[in-house]
Every structure is written in C-alpha cells, then in structure tokens.
Write a structure and sequence with these properties.
Layout (H helix, E strand, L loop, with lengths): L14 E5 L9 E6 L13 H13 L6 E6 L2 E5 L2
Antiparallel strand pairs: 1-4, 2-3
Length: about 80
Amino acid sequence: MGTVTPRSVLRYETWTLQPDREPDAEPVLYAMQCAVDGETSPASEDSTEPQNWVLRHCGQNPSHHTYREIITRPWRAWRQT
C-alpha cells in the first residue's frame, strides 16, 4: 500500500471590519470603573452619566482618584465578494 499524505486546501479571503452603524445595531455604551476598588458605574448610552457616577464615587471615597472608561461599541465583519 502506498504512502498517504495529508492534503490541505487554503482559500484566502478578504474581510472588512468596521463599527456597526446599521439601524438595528446595538447602542454604544459607556461606563466608568474605579481602579482602586473595581466598582463600576451602570452602563449608559450617555457618557455623562458614568462621569457623574465618578464624581459621586470619589466624593464618597476621597482616596479613589483613578478611573478607567469602558466603551462597548458594536462592530460588524463581512467577507468581500
């Protein structure tokens, strides 16, 4: 019996990736997280609401000075034909 060699077929395709701005896309959401205790604001479509949360949080925790912004942005990918 002869030697069996594995064979592969590769197909390269071009894909496009971009933020999803379709009418049915999920909304962009903003949140802030305290880097000291990990507490996170509620997510909101309005970026000022999480920023206001930071001001309340640091008012209640005067030693908490560092925060990170969390942005959840929907993306879409499709194969170009």
